[in-house]
Amino acid sequence: MKKIYLSLIVILFAFPVIAEEANIDDLKFPSSDWNLNLLDGASAGGSMLADIEYFEVAPPPSNSSEETKKELEYLIEIAKTERTKDNVARIHYENNGGKAHEFFLKEGLIDAANYKTVELLKMIDVDHMYFILERKKHFSRPRPSHLAAELGMDLSLVISNPGHPAYPSGHASQTYMVALVLADFDPENAEIYKQFAVDVAHRREIAGVHYVSDSVSGRQLAVDVLAKLRTIPAFEKKFQAAKLSYVKPSLKTDNNAE
């Protein structure tokens, strides 16, 4: 009887811990916080790629995982050390709803003469955005500040949380998509294009609205979507036409600087 009593005590004391962990892992992006226009976009389907198509994206780390805890600690640290005047200004600009290719244009990484390239990037973005939103809806990962609040961690934000879940990162994916296309057109400057995309994504981490793993998964999704698009003959024809007419930008050595 004594052994049974002790066993019951162990179970009763252990249960709240198990329940608490389960609650943290059940935490999702609040459905009430979704931007309704974007939520519709997550169900609209692709343009060139069929709406039955989807891309395998590895699930994000669980909310209770050590990896997620370290990611949150990292965001809190860079919030203290990397919110420079320049970074904060760029964060606000890149949060204003502009298209990813416009960031490259402003930075001088796309020559304004490349109208075929710009049209190609706009066309890609229609399908790409759908698959980003579809995966966001699927995983419904809470924003870092949502989870930090639940865990008693203090993570301030530079901008308000966007109206959609965190994973994968749209800014990381869309800017990396642009970088992949430009890198194919201009291999000599491939690393400059890719580094700029990585920098944009990192600034979303500095802002406190994305985990690092959001950025990583976003870049991989861009690779997968572009590869699939290039299997479509009509798309590949437009891709090659834009590549043939591509005018390299006059890059300065400091364009890649943060």
What would you say the CATH architecture is?
Up-down Bundle
Shape: globular
Q: How many helical stretches?
A: 11
Task: Supply the CATH superfamily name.
Answer: Phosphatidic acid phosphatase type 2/haloperoxidase
Task: Give a concise summary.
The chain has 258 residues and is an all-alpha fold. The protein has 11 helices and no strands.
Q: How would you describe the overall organization of this protein?
A:
By secondary structure, the chain is mainly α. It has a single domain, classed as Vanadium-containing Chloroperoxidase, domain 1. Helices cover 63% and strands 0% of the residues. The chain has 11 helices and no strands. α6 crosses α10. The longest helix has 25 residues. The radius of gyration is 21 Å and the shape is globular.
